[in-house]
Write a structure and sequence with these properties.
Helix content is 39%, strand content 0%. It is built from five helices and no strands. It starts with a helix and ends with a helix. With 85 residues, the protein is mostly helical. The chain has a domain of 55 residues. The longest helix has 8 residues.
């Protein structure tokens, strides 16, 4: 049975604003430096991460993200996470 977002919330850093996404950059960084499989599990595994980041694990980002509200594509994501360079 998948873990719901509300069940995961207490495990996340509640003092950090994750904005429109379920995870802050700092929370994601903690997964990789050092690698922490237990933290990944507490975030709901790969499915929890992809759902929280609003990405499709097979296709990645939707090419029309943000276009339905008259904004530039990926504007909200770039504003929150920064440029992917």
């Amino acid at each position: 049975m998948p873990v719901s977002t509300s069940e995961r919330t207490p495990l996340l850093d509640r003092d950090q604003d994750s904005g429109p996404f379920a995870f802050t950059p700092e929370q994601l960084y903690k997964l990789v430096d050092p690698k922490d499989p237990n933290l990944l599990n507490s975030y709901g595994g790969v499915k929890g991460i992809t759902d929280g980041l609003r990405v499709n694990p097979d296709n990645g980002l939707s090419s029309d993200e943000g276009l339905d509200s008259h904004r530039l594509p990926f504007e909200e994501r770039r504003k929150f996470y920064g440029k992917n360079v």
